[in-house]
Amino acid sequence: MFGMLMLENQRRDKLMESMLQQLVQQDTSNSCNVSMMPDFLSKIPTVDGNLTKANVWLKQLKSTKMLHVLPDNYMLDIARTYTLVDGAREWYLTNVSAMNT
Fold this sequence. Notes:
By secondary structure, the chain is an all-alpha fold.
């Protein structure tokens, strides 16, 4: 029984070593570059429906989008998910079905 466990552990170790070698030898042109997303949400204020705040909010959304080269659909998701509060959120939820996004 002990001998079988030793053989199984050796087989597993060889398999893991083989898999690691394959990862190291993998062509880097097919690899995916992963980078940290900047914390831009802290720079975008919330908006509650106040017109003055809404203008500042919209300018900050546009500025963040341009600075980080973010697609429109991503910014729309950020805006409606994280920055709309109180009256602005209620307005959005009431009117979302009528919008074409």
